[in-house]
Amino acid sequence: MAFEKIKRSENYSEWYNNLVKNADLAEHAAVKGCMVIKPYGYAIWEKIQQQLDKMFKQTGHSNAYFPLLIPKSFFEKEEKNAAGFAKECAVVTHYRLKVDENRKIIVDEDAKLEEELIIRPTSEAIIWSTYKGWIQSYRDLPILINQWANVMRWEMRTRLFLRTSEFLWQEGHTAHATSDEAIAETKQMLEVYAEFAETFMGVPVVKGVKTENERFAGAIETYCIEGLMQDGKALQMGTSHFLGQNFAKAFDVKFQTKEGKLEYVWATSWGVSTRLMGALVMAHSDDDGLVLPPKLAPIHVVIVPIYKTDAEREKVETLALEIRKKLEALDLSVKFDNRDTYKPGFKFAEWELKGVPLRMGIGPRDVENGTVELARRDTREKSVIGVEGIDTYVKNLLDEIQEAIYKRAKDFRDSNIHEVNTWDEFVEVLDTKGGFISAHWDGTADVEEKIKGLTKATIRCIPLNNKPESGKCILTGNPSVQRVLFAKAY
RNA sequence: CGGGGUGUAGCGUAGCCCGGUAUCGCGCCAGCAUGGGGUGCUGGAGGUCGCAGGUUCAAAUCCUGCCACUCCGACCA
Questions:
Q1: Which residue in A49, A159, A173, A298 has the fewest CB atoms around it within 10 Å?
Q2: Nucleotide with the nearest C1' to A347 CA
Q3: Which nucleotide does the CA of A217 lie closest to, via C1'?
Q4: pLDDT digits (tens, 9 = 90+) for A437-482
Q5: Does A209 share its domain with A302?
């Protein structure tokens, strides 16, 4: 487990890559831009999934599954959506291989598909072509469906979890009778995402609306949650789109109203991906490894026994197992690390690397005194606690850690939102401090592009809780009615 | 797509300029000691040197071509 420690302050992206690998979250796969999510990383993803899935179901959604492959003719129906994703689509052109004279496997040219199939970069096309068959009457609405799936986007530049060619996500696709209902759904799911990010991931987010430039291809309006990472760069953590009637029109999905009129269906789609894993790593972790919020940690407490003789070992183990039982009765996940092949110090370092929120050390001394040593991963504080009532103590402490992690991230975020009023200030803050920059913009896509070209900063969103405020665009001096949030982003 | 880097044991590497059958560390296996913050010692196993071709008595090393991955940009719901 010996590995080179890389400091965040020295090389943030190297730190990130190393941490993802060393903490056993994921590694690069044989294919460019693809990753293998390892068991420990996948366990975290499963916690994310379980919680989100619960929240989706609580808001009335059901899971279903649609196919990976989309006929090209379906894909091209919603023009903007197709154009937006065209550059990053993998295409299936043949359905068979064969063995050639050199005993090499080659594509069988005789097995060329009549129509090419697109590997889904997102599923609106295949889903709306299906919904067409499901919707005739207002009685068939709303349709509230989510799917857990993989998608593929052939990105030029990839990064583990943050942007991989193939990634796992969930995509909700809903169909409604009215525009208002669809908009309400879009906003509801944004709230679900925000609550998940803050309460479970411990990552504070800004809820907002995307500008036209940053909007999902095919959407009328894209809502988003934006987080801030420790290096001062923003990360889009989830999006919820109001699709209007764009897809209904593209796929000719109409329903008959109570009054007997034929109308196009209103749509939404919303998604979060394994990118959230990247957010989790970048928001909380330190130079010693991961720091996981208890609510998403696969292991809440790791018990490390300390002993010399077999007799000591037995006593320590008895106490450890007793405590584990108590903790498990409170629904806590406990790892008793009784590997005899590693020394305690090694284990301490390893579990810190993996971000386990609480470590419990139990040695002969503790057995004698009726105590254990508890070490918090987030603050590195250690304390000796009596065994009596340890279960509720630990449970409360985990809640406290969850809070503390969120608070630390929120303090960081809040102190990194800078209001600026001039172009010079904008450039300087961007270069020296990073973070979110709240500034006036004249509302034109053209100016947004120019700013991006000059500084690499993009408008992350127009915050939902924005107060109207008249001012002058930092670049052009044109009048502006509100501030927007700029940042360099992943 | 532009620029850089890498490809040698499970991982990380030295060797390449100057050709002679591969170095070191971690990990792995065995044993003994050790055990409250990454343990020490001893012994051991493990290699088509990315692929193909060429030069040569001899290629990890020189030449040609190819491939892959990665990092930094451009791009990116």
A1: A49
A2: B38
A3: B77
A4: 999 999 999 999 999 988 999 999 999 999 999 999 999 999 999 9
A5: no
Residues A46 and A62 in one domain: yes
CATH number where A442 lies: 3.30.110.30
CATH, residue A46: 3.30.930.10
Domain range for A135? 12-67+124-284
Question: ipTM, 2 decimals?
Answer: 0.84
Separation between the CA of A126 and the C1’ of B25 (whole angstroms): 53
Q: pLDDT tens-digit profile of A45-85?
A: 999 999 999 999 999 999 999 999 999 999 999 999 999 89
Q: CA of A374 and C1' of B41: distance in angstroms?
A: 34
Residue nearest to nucleotide B34 (CA to C1'): A308
pLDDT at A380: 95
Domain count, chain A: 3
Name the residue with the least CA to C1' distance from nucleotide B77.
A216
Question: What's the average model confidence in pLDDT over A182-192?
Answer: 98
**Which nucleotide is closest, CA of A288 to its C1'?**
B38
Considering the domain architecture, whether residues A211 and A273 belong to the same structural domain is answered as: yes
Q: Last residue of some domain: A266, A284, A302?
A: A284
Cα–Cα distance for residue pair A32/A23, rounded to 1 Å: 21
Q: Which residue is nearest to nucleotide B38 (CA to C1')?
A: A346
Q: Is residue A474 part of a domain?
A: yes
Judgement on whether residues A177 and A321 belong to the same structural domain of the protein: no
Q: How far is the CA of A285 from the C1' of B49 (A)?
A: 38
What's the pLDDT at A32? 82
In angstroms, the CA of A99 and the C1' of B48 are apart by 24
pLDDT score at A360: 98
Structural domain contains residue A92: no
Q: Which of A349, A381, A412 is where one domain is finished?
A: A412
Which nucleotide's C1' is closest to A21 (Cα)?
Answer: B11
Burial letters A323-357, b for 16+ CB under 10 A, else e? bbebbeeeebbbbbbeeeeeeeeebbbbbbbbbbb
Is there a single domain that holds both residue A223 and residue A311?
Answer: no
- Within-domain flag for A392: yes
Q: Whole-number Å distance, CA A21 to C1' B26?
A: 16
Which of A34-43, A103-112, A152-161, A258-267 shows the lowest per-residue confidence on average (mean pLDDT)? Answer: A103-112
- Shared domain check, A273 and A138: yes
